[in-house]
Design brief:
The complex is a heterodimer of chains A (about 425) and B (about 130). Chain A is built from eight helices and 24 strands. With about 425 residues, chain A is α/β, with parallel strands linked by helices. Chain A has one domain. In chain A, the strands form six sheets. In chain A, strands 5, 6, 9, 10, 11 and 23 form a six-stranded mixed sheet that branches. Chain A has a six-stranded mixed sheet with strand order 16-18-13-19-20-21, sandwiched between helices. Chain A is globular. By secondary structure, chain B is mainly α. Chain B is built from four helices and five strands, in the order βαβαβββαα. The radius of gyration of chain B is 14 Å and the shape is globular. The two termini of chain B are about 15 Å apart. The interface between A and B is large, with 46 and 42 residues.
Chain lengths: ~425, ~130
């Protein structure tokens, strides 16, 4: 499967009467987006605001972040089974507005969701301080049930991203990157002397506000399967996860999965990137046992020499991570796990909620318990009404001037457990 | 099911054997589950289900069974529950549970209920 990703670099975003791209600036029509979002009767409010790198702007509470992408050639449509019709994606050409995002904000439940600062000392902890963001602030209809509101918020973001991405369809990309993975036997034959490496991508799938979708299928209802890495670049995986801002894998992070990106960088040089095994993080221990057995079976079946595993979340997923690590290792495949850490305030407690002796090689994405200071900002997109109860905030953390202190875990993607960040914990 | 979430009690009373106590803290539910494990029960659901950490949500529900569904290794469940109790103390030592508004408390009940609804909808629950 071969995908050309045409990157159109966006350096600014502005409002206009219609939506288009010119000379690296994304122009968006506010009214059309608001109309599109309000087609869903579950939502009664939709307000579009813009946030650019370096501005004194704070966005909170953030639900999802999405990079606008559109299918230009090849089968299917972006976000298959969710927005686009169900159909295989991952081949042909896709255009991306790199440097632009759609961000959905609004209170889904009273305690969760994170913060993005576009400037100041905390901006460096989130990649979205460096992007030009089209923020959609949503409000639910009175009495809307939580599940329905989450679904409406998720769809609002995806629909807006698809709408914005249409502007990229007929443009000549600034750069085209080609990614290719062949069918297994051909792929192994292409680089017979290089180690065969795979990637186990664990999807959050525990329930309300903890869900992920693959071609529209609720990930808690599938069994481990094999995916071509390019499928994810066309939006085969969509985030419905709202819990724990710091290590939430947004839809943007699925589209731009850094493990897949880096494995392709090394593909054909010092390793042979064979493919992705998708699995889930269910609440049922029987599901965990069955699915970790299947992950190990698939790893062995693919003839892998080694693989990387990433998780999403803390606690329950740590058990899946460890079961996968243990069983894959016992199947004779070398494992490196990638995760963030919660070792307590002094950094001395167990970082994860579970551990096995086989988990002896780990890449750390930093720890979420560090307390950082957030200075006041000139403009707020969303609301700070809930900051004391957002994850990482605490009673009395908010000051009258709009500044506050909170744990790093309140910032979107600050310790994301797939390495799309710049933090790590070191052993001294 | 051991739980301190009244909405789980309301939903499954009569369908499951429910050990409910509204006075229980998150820790008390873990300890109750631990006691069942010592009495020969097996964990069906992960004690730390949900990414909401033990110092963030007041509610916890755990399902156990007298019969194991997966032939897990000996002491797996005891290790899991003890690790969960240790994780609870780590987080609470770091920062205790906030005084949530009633709206937030209800949201936490909804999240916990939703996790259990996912479990109850799993075909494996209808096997017995």
């Amino acid at each position: 499967m071969k995908l050309e990703l045409g990157k159109i670099y966006i350096r600014d975003v502005q409002f206009a009467e219609k939506t288009y791209v010119k000379d690296g600036t994304l122009y968006v029509c506010k009214e059309e987006i608001e109309k599109l979002v309000l087609e869903d009767e579950r939502l009664t409010g939709a307000r579009v605001e813009l946030a650019r790198p370096g501005e004194s702007v704070r966005i909170s509470p953030v639900k999802d972040v999405i990079e606008p992408r559109v299918k230009v050639e090849g089968n299917g449509a972006v976000f298959p089974g969710v927005i686009g019709k169900v159909g295989q994606v991952g081949e042909g050409r896709t255009h991306a507005l790199v440097g632009a995002t759609v961000i959905t904000c609004g209170k889904i439940v009273g305690f969760q969701e994170g913060v993005i600062d576009m400037s100041g000392p905390t901006a460096k902890y989130t990649p979205f301080s460096q992007t030009n963001n089209v923020c959609v602030v949503i409000e639910p209809a009175d009495g809307l049930e939580t599940h329905d509101y989450e679904a409406a918020g998720r769809m609002a973001g995806l629909k807006t991203a698809v709408y914005v991405a249409e502007a990229a369809k007929n443009l000549v990309p600034d750069e085209i990157v080609t990614y290719e993975t062949k069918p297994l036997l051909e792929q192994i034959a292409q680089y017979p002397d290089l180690p065969k490496i795979g990637y186990v991508h664990m999807l959050q799938s525990q329930g309300l506000l903890h869900d992920t979708y693959y071609y529209g299928v609720d990930a808690k209802k599938f069994i481990p399967t094999i995916m071509y890495p390019t499928e994810i670049m066309d939006g085969a995986i969509v985030s419905g996860n709202c819990v724990a801002p710091c290590d939430k894998v947004t839809t943007y992070h699925h589209l731009n999965n850094p493990v897949i990106e880096d494995l392709y960088q090394h593909h054909g040089k010092d390793l042979n990137f064979v493919g992705v095994i998708l699995t889930n993080e269910n609440v049922f221990l029987a599901d965990k046992e069955r699915h970790s057995d299947m992950v190990a079976k698939l790893a062995k079946y693919l003839g892998l020499d080694g693989l990387l595993i990433t998780e999403e979340g803390y606690g329950n997923p740590d058990t899946d991570l460890m079961m996968n690590c243990k069983k894959v290792t016992q199947a004779g495949v070398k494992v490196v796990i990638i995760t963030d850490e919660f070792p307590g305030r002094d950094g001395k407690s167990y970082s994860l909620a579970d551990a096995v002796p086989e988990a002896d090689t780990m890449v750390s994405c930093g720890q979420g318990n560090l307390i950082v200071h957030f200075p006041p900002m000139d403009k707020l997109i969303g609301t700070m009404d809930y900051v004391e109860s957002q994850i990482g905030g605490y009673a009395g953390c908010m000051n009258e001037d709009g500044s506050f202190d909170a744990e790093l875990q309140i910032i979107i993607a600050s310790t994301i457990a797939n390495g799309f960040n710049k933090l790590a914990a070191r052993t001294y | 099911m051991v739980t301190n979430n009244v909405r789980c009690l309301e939903k499954w009373e009569g369908k499951l054997q429910i050990d409910y106590n509204e006075e229980w803290a998150y820790l008390d539910v873990l300890l109750a589950a631990r006691d069942y494990i010592h009495r020969g029960y097996f964990l069906l659901t992960h004690p730390l289900a949900g990414s909401v950490k033990p110092n963030q949500t007041p509610f916890k529900s755990i399902i156990l069974s007298e019969e194991s569904l997966e032939g897990a290794e000996d002491f797996r469940d005891l290790t899991l529950i003890e690790e969960s109790i240790e994780a609870y103390h780590k987080f609470m030592g770091n920062r205790p549970l906030p005084e949530w508004s009633e709206k937030s408390v209800e949201d936490f009940r909804t999240i916990d209920l939703s996790l259990m609804e996912g479990v109850m909808a799993n075909p494996i629950m209808n096997r017995r």
